[in-house]
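Q&A log
Question type: sequence-to-structure
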Amino acid sequence: MVGLRRPLLLVAGLLAVALGALGIFVPLLPTTPFLLLAVWCFARSSERLHRWLRGQKHLGPILTHWELHRAVRPRVKWVATAMILLLFSHQLAFGTFHPWIELAAGACLTGVLAFLWTRPSRPAAAP
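Response status: OK
Response body:
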């Protein structure tokens, strides 16, 4: 199993990047959690892909900030919240899903928002 760890993490990271990219275009499919998973996988399997993902123009600084400080900047919190609420309200208004599916999606998104807003906004002060 030890010899499979690196390739499995590499595949998981690539899959997470693909799902994160898909999440940019598919409502209710989150992007950031998949990219956080990808950066974690790449940190343990591929230095080159880890650097590539952290070097991305728009998402790299957010991922690096999370990786170094486990913090989410206030602007990122507000933009993520606005996008989640906009897309979910659009789905509620125009969607054709069963009410139980919409309820489950709403519960999931509430959990995502709760996690997001309970993270620190600034790096912790040095001891």
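Response note: Residues 66 and 123 are 9 Å apart (CA to CA).
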